Structures
1.
Amino acid sequence: MKLGIIGAGNVGSTLGRRWAAAGHEVRFGVRDVGDARVVRLLSEIGPKASAGSNAEAAASAEVVVLATPYDDTPEALAAAGDLAGKVLIDCTEPVVMGPDILKRGLLIGHNTSAAEQIAARAPGVKVVKTLNTVGWPVMANPQFGSQKAVMPYCGDDAAAKAAAARLVGDLGFEPLDAGPLANARLLEPFGMLWISLAFNSMGTDFAFSLVKR
Ligand SMILES: NC(=O)c1ccc[n+]([C@@H]2O[C@H](COP(=O)([O-])OP(=O)(O)OC[C@H]3O[C@@H](n4cnc5c(N)ncnc54)[C@H](OP(=O)(O)O)[C@@H]3O)[C@@H](O)[C@H]2O)c1
């Protein structure tokens, strides 16, 4: 698949590395293509990766992945241009990063979610919420012994959800259909639980798995 990843920080770079290794073509949308971290990332990934503006990354992508801080999403989306008709995977967690992250908690919730706010800003875009319920080190390796970490995804468009499930599976997760996009109201607090556990007791090398009969 052709993927446009907006943001090449911890999450964007990790996803880009993994998806390129799985055979996908990755174009990062960045604010500065000359940034030394971007140049290094591209040279480490090799010919499957390139970088451009957000609009360039989105233009040729079948799936656009939003991996910017939630506060930066209005600017990042505006710079991506018209995304109507595209699949947009929203990885954001609506928190303010930093030492007060647990004290401040989620910026929104209960009767809306970051994913729904993003969908409202991007009319005609098929938004799928996923990849917000573990930290980036787990995205780099979701295999725990014989078990895969579970990765819930939710959205309102069946084809978009199928694309997201495939991409999440290609990372090595067990994809879990978590229903409509409004269920991002549940996935974002679930992501906050992972953050709280990580800060308080577990570190970053853990994830949730699914058991069923
Ligand atoms: N960290 C985790 O483990 C984790 C796990 C799950 C979900 N998340 C969520 O994933 C998102 C990214 O987290 P992160 O840890 O990767 O953050 P990060 O390391 O701070 O990276 C954020 C990236 O977004 C870029 N960015 C900001 N505004 C942009 C714009 N307008 N256009 C293009 N790029 C822009 C930044 O680029 P500059 O260098 O130009 O500032 C930076 O490369 C957040 O919403 C976070 O809540 C994070």
2.
Amino acid sequence: MKAMMIDHFGGSGEFYVGDAPIVEPAADEVLVRAAYASVNPADWKCRAGLLPLLAHAGFPMIVGMDCAGVVERVGSDVVDFKSGDRVISLSGVSRGKPGTYAEFSTAPQQRVAHVPAHLTIEEAATIPIAAASAASSIIDVAKVKSGDTVFLNGGSGSVGTFGIQFLRHLGARVAATCSTRNLDYVRGLGTDLVIDYTREDIATALRAWAPDGVDSVIDAVGQNSLPADTPALIKGGGILVCIQNLLTGPDAFNLDLAAKRNVRVVDNVVEARTPDSSNFQVSAFRQLLAAIDTGVIKVPPYEIMSLEDVARAQDKVEDGHVRGKILLKIAEV
Ligand SMILES: NC(=O)c1ccc[n+]([C@@H]2O[C@H](COP(=O)([O-])OP(=O)(O)OC[C@H]3O[C@@H](n4cnc5c(N)ncnc54)[C@H](OP(=O)(O)O)[C@@H]3O)[C@@H](O)[C@H]2O)c1
């Protein structure tokens, strides 16, 4: 099968069009024939050797953590999917299986879901990793409930787009950041307070909006985009969730201040880890997917590029200012 592969960690120039064997699905796995893979920020970090999980997978390596397409065939224990079903996949990379920048990939059945009936496959391809990360950070880690005040840093990215809508769906009040060109977009997601991080002081805006502090901060940007004393903006007993970005972590914040205020500062992946990696983020993901199914949550805007154009696509994502998603078109299915 055709796949975009690398033989070394490095820059986006490492990619080449390769011919890889199709990996047969194990008893509990689904083999997906991909129409689109999405480009997640983790993908360029994986290509650069920053993702320890995949750094052990060996070369030649197929990068990519999710896709949308149709079921080709299923393992003997799989009952919920059959050949021809339209599906989205969180991939099998957490099991050490090859990634999704390829015509075929496998995933444990828990990490596969049917495409919501009202969506095209390309629309659905925007969903998997971004929605799973947003939902798990909100439900498993921050444990957000109706009436909570939540600040989400990075409202216009794919995690932010799903996160804001899911928070509103759960009944939370939401503040979020973006740059000037994305103000209307982020407001349109239902955000109660939109902060232009290029022009406003985030702490001042948040203090005016939530004088007693917010219940949770979800940081989907990292890289010191928030002040180290952000825990001072959070109520005692509250939480700051750093969505794992592999560049900076919870220690970018003043942890002594957090401890004094009884605020927890955590990494979403470490905090939500499950004994069986196949179940990681899955329950929360399915709750968000149910809201997409009913039409309450909309998918982000997206740009389609060809699989062979992966280097340019990853460079754009690495630049950090994509609104919504970039999808790689793999095949008509
Ligand atoms: N561990 C997990 O479970 C997991 C899963 C998925 C993603 N992630 C991580 O979560 C992060 C977000 O992922 P994503 O897919 O949402 O990324 P993304 O879609 O590439 O995010 C790009 C967006 O970030 C915004 N942005 C850039 N700098 C900002 C700043 N200083 N303040 C506010 N917004 C800013 C940009 O908006 P402007 O153009 O307006 O600046 C752009 O719309 C990444 O670091 C990714 O690696 C982790």
